[in-house]
Amino acid sequence: MAPKHQLAYASFTIYQDTEPPEFWTDYFGVSPSRAGAKGQPKLMPSGKMSSTPWRQGTWSVSSEQAVTSDQLTPHLRYLVEYLTLPRSDLPELLKRTGAHMRFFCYWDNESGDRVPDVPDDIRTMMEAMGGTVEIDEYR
C-alpha cells in the first residue's frame, strides 16, 4: 500500500546571491533540504540534473518528510523550532546579503473546502524578521 499523500507541508527558504549556501547551513546549524548557488548545476528532487542552472542562490528546509499532518500549523511550528526562530540578528543578515526569506506552504485543496491554517504568531514573527508567508493552493 502506497503512503498517503500529505495535503500540506511547508518550507523555509532564503534566496540571495551574496553568500554561498554553506553560510546559511552554518548559521542555522542544520542541513538544507535543497540548496544551490546562482549559476551552479541544479540537482532536481528526482535525482536528475536540470538542464538549467540555479537562477538564484537558494537555501531551503522542508517539513515534508519530518511532519505528518494535513494542516499547516504543525509544519510551520516544526520549522520554527528546528531553525530556532525568531533570531534577532537575522533581519540584519538579510539586509546585508540582499536576501529574501519566506515560508512557502503547499496546500492541497482539491475538495475545495479546506482553509489554510497559518497561526497569527508565526505570520507576525516572519513579518517582523523581514520575511513572508506564502500559500500555494492546489485545486
Short account of what is shown:
This protein is of the alpha+beta class. The chain contains four helices and five strands.
Could you characterize what this model shows?
The chain has 139 residues and is an alpha+beta fold. The chain has a domain at 8-14 and 59-138. It has helices spanning 21-28, 72-82, 90-97, 120-129; strands spanning 8-15, 34-36, 58-62, 100-108, 132-138. α4 (120-129) links the parallel β4 and β5 (132-138). The radius of gyration is 15 Å and the shape is globular. The protein starts with 7 loop residues before the first strand and ends with a strand.
Distance between the termini: 25 Å
The SSE order reads: EHEEHHEHE
Give, in spatial order, the strands making up the sheet with the most strands.
2-3-1-4-5
User: What proportion of the residues is helical, as a percent range?
Assistant: 25-40%
Low-pLDDT residue spans:
none
Task: Please report which band the strand proportion falls in: under 5%, 5-15%, 15-25%, 25-35%, 35-45% or over 45%.
Answer: 15-25%
Number of helices: 4
Q: What profile does the largest beta sheet have?
A: 5 strands, mixed
Structural class assignment: alpha+beta
Give the mean pLDDT. Answer: 93
> Gyration radius, to the nearest Å?
15 Å
Name its key features.
single chain; 139 residues; alpha+beta; five-stranded mixed beta sheet; 4 helices; 5 strands; 27% helix; globular
